[in-house]
Design goal:
The chain is mainly β. Helices cover 5% and strands 43% of the residues. Strands 2, 4, 5, 6, 9, 10 and 11 form a seven-stranded mixed β-sheet that branches. A hairpin with a 6-residue loop joins β4 and β5. The longest helix has 7 residues. The termini are far apart.
């Protein structure tokens, strides 16, 4: 059974930076598309960024130029470097995979829209990011 654990969340002032980490056991992260998603109370889950097994990356328009996704194969960890954080970035951030090897830009939207229905996907428990002065 694969286990995904996110870490690195916290409270940061607007304009600050955080680096989230997604670590896994029972799952080799460089074999699949790994995505970062976020959700705030009362809102739908949304895709933030993803990285394919070949290293192609995609970003939501709202985070382009500010967030960077990367992968450390030796550590079996995927990172999300978040810079120039804004209050609207406040959310619980989740790491997930549905075990696809490759993806198009629409992969994040599809998994975010049907995250309850895609029962074979693996999700972490989430890490809270709060951007506030």
């Amino acid at each position: 059974q694969a286990q995904i654990v996110e870490s690195g969340g916290g409270l940061v002032q607007p304009g600050g930076s955080l680096r989230l980490a997604c670590a896994a056991s029972g799952l080799q992260l460089d074999r699949y598309v790994i995505g970062w998603f976020r959700q705030t109370p009362g809102k739908e889950r949304e895709g933030v960024s993803c990285i394919t097994s070949s290293g192609t990356t995609y970003y939501a328009e709202s985070v382009k130029g500010r967030f960077t996704i990367s992968r450390d194969n030796a550590q079996n960890t995927v990172y999300l470097q978040m810079n120039a954080l804004k209050p609207e970035d406040t959310a619980i951030y989740y790491c997930a995979t549905d075990y696809h090897f490759d993806a198009t830009e629409g992969w994040m939207r599809s998994l975010a829209a049907d995250w309850r229905g895609i029962t074979h996907a693996s999700w972490g428990q989430g890490t809270q990011v709060t951007v506030s002065s």
